[in-house]
Amino acid sequence: MKAAIMGYGTIGSGVFEVLNRNREIIAKKAGEPIDPVRILDLRDFPGDPAERLIVHEIDEILKDEAIGIVVETMGGTSPAYEFVRNCLLAGKHVVTSNKALVAAHGTELLAIAKKMGVSFLFEASVGGGIPIIRTINESLAGEQIEEISGILNGTTNYILTKMCEEGWSFGDALKKAQEMGYAERNPEADIEGQDTCRKIAILTAVASGKEVDYREIPTEGISRISDLDFSYAARMGAAIKLFGFSRMMDGNVYMEAAPVFIDVKNPLYSVDGVFNGILVKGNMLGTSMYYGSGAGKLPTASAVVGDMIEAVRRTCDPTAPGWSEEKLCISPASLLPRKYFARFEGSRAEKKEAVEAAFGRVKWMVLEGLDEFAVLTSPMTGAEFDAAAEKIGGLRQKIAAEL
Ligand code: HSE
């Protein structure tokens, strides 16, 4: 089948490389060769192996009836949404790595694909090279999924690891993540948690079969994590990780994208660097974990090519991952009782009474020479925490803790 790639950046060029390097294996698995014949990009690439395939107009792909499958690796929603929509309406399969697109327009694009009898696949949109979407959709098809939690953003996990273990500055770690091709074009989406938010929205939609509006998920990134938080974490033997979380319970789904303290008992504790790790809890299987490279050129391209083979092999698979137009009702995870790590200004001696009156028994942590202290509370809801912290005054940090 003839293929086109829209967007010849880090991932798009990776897809071209995988299709060429693994050409024979791919042809065998797909039942026919998959040949890239057009690559859409605004730029030219003189001297690049793909130079002769570069086109600058989407019509060169849309109007070429020989092209049966299109890869979208442009990122962002505009013009990716219009281009993908038009490719599907032109009867072409589409495979994308673009979580912003899938989270914002997945419901409509899935419906168009179904109507047109083509595939719209997006394995690479979550977890980079980790096969998680097809796993939830197929291998765990007999499960009632109860909880999904995971480290879903390679850039922030890389930054947190380098800051914590090697003492790098935030800026240096981010710069390196950008150089390695992990970060989004605008890394704010990584840093402020939106990328994690979109990914947990997609996983939850696949698991529940219902649309998840990612804008309803409480989202927080890592920009307010400080060196001091790492010092307290080290004292407690804990790691700070950015989690995407959803718990499906009693007909409700509680969701969040936010940093969390975890300890060595959590299997995600040692998921470091650009790696992602995802825990999925099913009502029969219990907890299973999926681990691998969460970002980067070839791991992500590998997941894209896996989807291309799937689309070519099955042409159109009615059981492919997706969800209906029915909307899932989302509640904030802060309604669930959880422990909190919190730092307050002042000294333990002067605030001890107020802290114990507000929180009851807590675990105390004091670092020498600072005009502040930290506590680990017993489980409580976010609202209960806020009310108690208000009574004490001088709150400097609050992070949920699974300790
Ligand atoms: N910027 C994303 C990350 C790329 O760092 O995880 C992979 O989706």
UniProtKB/TrEMBL annotation:
Pfam families: Homoserine_dh, NAD_binding_3
Residues forming the catalytic site: K199
Residues that, per the record, bind L-homoserine: E184
Entry keywords, A to Z: Amino-acid biosynthesis, Methionine biosynthesis, NADP, Oxidoreductase, Sodium, Threonine biosynthesis
Highest taxon of source: Bacteria
Domain Homoserine dehydrogenase catalytic: 131-309
EC number: 1.1.1.3
Pathway info: Amino-acid biosynthesis; L-threonine biosynthesis; L-threonine from L-aspartate: step 3/5; Amino-acid biosynthesis; L-methionine biosynthesis via de novo pathway; L-homoserine from L-aspartate: step 3/3
Residue numbers binding NADPH: K99
Keyword check for Transmembrane: no
GO biological process, one term: methionine biosynthetic process
Binding residues annotated for NADP(+), in chain numbering: M6, G7, Y8, G9, T10, I11, G12, S13
PANTHER family: HOMOSERINE DEHYDROGENASE
NCBIfam families noted in UniProt: PRK06349.1
Family: Belongs to the homoserine dehydrogenase family.
Name of the molecule in the record: Homoserine dehydrogenase
Source organism per UniProt: Candidatus Copromonas faecavium (nom. illeg.)
